[in-house]
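Summary for the funding panel

The consortium committed to producing paired sequence-structure records for every protein in the target list. Below we show the first two records in order, beginning with the earlier of the two.
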Amino acid sequence: MKLATVLLAVLAGGCCAAHRFERADRDAVTAVLARQRAAWNRGDLAAYMDGYARTGGLVFTSAGQIRRGWDDTMRRYKSRYGGDRAGMGQLGFDILQVQPLGADGAVVLGRWRLRGTPNAGSGVFSVVLERRPEGWRIVHDHTSRD
């Protein structure tokens, strides 16, 4: 009978409080993007890419192309922007919405603008972040131009 009581407590949530998406999680998610922006603006592509999950499951969609995996995404950024401050320009963005996806995920909707590079432009983005052992990381990025 004692085992049955323990099982009922577990099923009812009595032994452990369920993790919820808290204000601290929202702050951690937006901090990932803030670190990416700072890294981009100092020309540090490697630090910028740290915001993405370093996995083959990463999905990056831009300019009508779907790329899969961290390595492919890094190659795309390097080929387009060169990976130094001269080619990367200055990135700015506005976060319009952070929508929790359960306790361990979030979708961020925003507008981006890039200046000071031949690839300058602006548009919208939506990124899906996942709570991972190394912290919140982007697992899906969809970016489009105005």
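The next record, for a separate protein in the list, is shown here:
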Amino acid sequence: MAGSFEQFERALGELRAQIDRVKRLTQEQGLDRSAEIAELEAQERRLLEEVYANLSPWDQTLIARNPQRPYLLDYVHLLFNDFTELQGDRLYADDGAMVGGPARLDDRWVMVIGQQKGRDAADRHKRNHGYSRPEGYRKALRLMRLAEKFQRPVISLVDTTAADASVGSEERGISEAIARNIRDMFLLRVPIIVAITGEGGSGGALGIGVGDRVLMLEHAVYSVIPPEGCAAILWKDPKRAPEAAAALRVTARSAREMGAVDEIVPEPLGAAHRDKETTARNLKEALSRHLDELCRTDVDTLLDLRYEKFRRLGEYVDPSSNGAG
């Protein structure tokens, strides 16, 4: 694939604008331009197929960060009914980056939690760009314990570059809050499904990332550190982020191969930001299917399997040992 991914995205945007312009003129002038529109749409599809068949790990990272990609509240609107947001950690404050509350997935009540990045400048400030503070993780744990009390499954939608690393968050115990969530999610006596919908970054993702099933959208990314941070640490050069993304194996396919996720949820051609409704339908089908299975499983068995699932992560067999150890 010649050229950068950003160049292809610009070309695709210009082509889509041209299609919309021809359609608008067709309505205004009442002329038949169906053949021209069909040719432009065929050209758009060919370009999309070419681009998305040859994505690098860095390209996938850029897609996962696309500002038009659906965020948590978009999925709440598209997937659930009767959502009621609950705020505050009952210790310090509310955190706009972490959103949660009870909702219905079809006829099943669940507790939904996840990160919200924000759309415009004011909302991004309110949401802290999706970087959750300690009170956000403590709020999430409060809601998970509430779900446990009323025997409701937990659905966690992960989309964050990382946890907030400001001085204030460090003073208020961001590391302890994330560690406590990880520990207590292993002990939560209700089914948990985690879905990585955009960026699954570092401890910010792990703080709400322990589940009986971990799903990942096709063009999401999952990593121990953002590629820029990795490049800055290893090579003192954040501009080598594309190289770091490849080394970190951030893509959904790599995460599935390593056993970090259980299922890759397909996105429509051109990724979720081009068709939010289809993406939401695909995710809803996967969530419902896994919930049906998990809700039939005995709780003690569920906890044992959850523990074993994460204990297996990181197992490695040296190819030269012929599987001996």
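Regarding this second record: The first strand starts at residue 98 and ends at 105. The chain has 14 helices and seven strands.
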